[in-house]
Amino acid sequence: MAQRPRELTPFVSARHLFGAELRRHREGAGLSLERLAAIVKYSRSHLSRVEIAEVMPPPDLAELLDAAFGTDGIFGKVYELAKREVHPDRYRRHMELEARARVIEEYAGQVIPGLVQTEDYARALFRGGNPGASDEKIEELVNARLSRQELLRGKSSPYLSLVLDEASLRRQIGDNEVMRAQLTALIPMVDTPAGVVQVLPFSHGAHALTGGSMRFLTLADRSVVAWDESIDSGILLEDPEVVTAYQRAYDLLKAYALSPSRTAAFITSVLEALPS
Q1: Which of 95, 190, 202, 216 could form a disulfide with 105 if both were Cys (CB 3.0 to 4.6 A apart)?
Q2: What residue spans define the domains of the chain?
Q3: Considering only the top CATH level, what class is 14-84?
C-alpha cells in the first residue's frame, strides 16, 4: 500500500507555501518526484524535503521550477519571501535595505564577508559556529547566505567596496582546500568595474573599527545607513551623525589599506603559503 503524502500547510510560512505550490504544480503536470528530479537536476529526496518544508529551497531551484512549469516567475516571487524568513527579525530590515543599496561598503575584521563567501567556506563557518546543528539546518543557513549574493549578479547590482583585515585571510575556516578556493575566488574581485577589495595588514595596528565588523549601505536617495555586527547580533544605525562618524573611520581604513594590485599580490602570497 502506497504511503499517503504528508498533508501540507501552505499558510504557515512562505517556505511552506513554496512547498505546497511545488506539489500542486507537480501533480497538475502529472509528474512524480523522480521525474521532476530528472528535469531540474535535484535529487528526489531533496525535492521531497522542499515540498514538505523541511528545508529551505536552494537559490536556483525557483528559476528551474518556473521554467519547468511555465509559471512566469511565481516560484521566484515566493522564494524572495521565503529566504527572508530564515533570518531573525532584527536582520530583516537590514536585508531589505541591502537589497536596495546602490553602494555597499564593508570592513571585515575576522572572516570573509558573506556577500563574497564560497559555498564551502560558508558551510564550514556555520558548522564551526553551530556544532550541534543538524545538517539540514546548516544547509538552510548556507542557502540563505548564497541567496543574498544574488543581488551582486543582477542588472542593477550595487558597487561593492571591501576592506578585509589581514586576520580574515589568515583565519583558517574549513580545511586547506576550502581556504584555497575562497582566497582564489577573491583575487578576480580586487579591482573591477563592480567593486574593489583591499587588505588592511596587521602592521597598521589599532584603529577605530578594531574588533568588529561594519558595513555601510548607500541608497538611491544618497542616504546612508550602517550595520554594526557582533558575534550573534547586529545593530542598524540610521542617525546621520553616528553613521558619518563611522564612515570617516572606514574612509581612513581605505586610505591605509593596500592598493588593489598589492592586495591581489598579498592574497596570492597567503594562498601560496597554504600547505598543498
Answers
A1: 216
A2: 14-84, 89-273
A3: mainly alpha
Look up residue 224 and give its three cell numbers.
Answer: 546612508
Dihedrals phi, psi of 222, to nearest 5 degrees: 75, 5
Question: Do 187 and 169 form a contact (C-beta atoms < 8 A)?
Answer: no
- Mean pLDDT split into 10-residue runs, the chain, 276 residues: 68 86 94 94 89 83 95 92 69 82 94 95 94 90 89 89 96 96 97 96 91 89 86 77 92 96 97 90
97 CB burial (10 A radius; 0-12, 13-18, 19+): middle
CB 250 within 8 A of CB 216: yes
16 φ/ψ angles, rounded to the nearest 5 degrees = -65, -40
The pTM for the full model equals 0.72
176-186 and 119-129 helices, crossing angle to 10°: 130
Residues 6+ apart with CB under 8 A from 162: 105, 106, 107, 108, 113, 116, 189, 195, 196, 197, 198
Start-end of H helices in 86-175: 89-100, 119-129, 135-148, 166-170
Q: What are the cell numbers at 177?
A: 582546500
User: In this structure, which CATH number among 3.90.1150, 3.30.450, 3.30.870, 3.30.70 belongs to the domain 89-273?
Assistant: 3.30.870
Closest CA to 124 of 108, 110, 139, 113: 139
Which residues are paired to 104 by β-bridges?
A: 160, 217
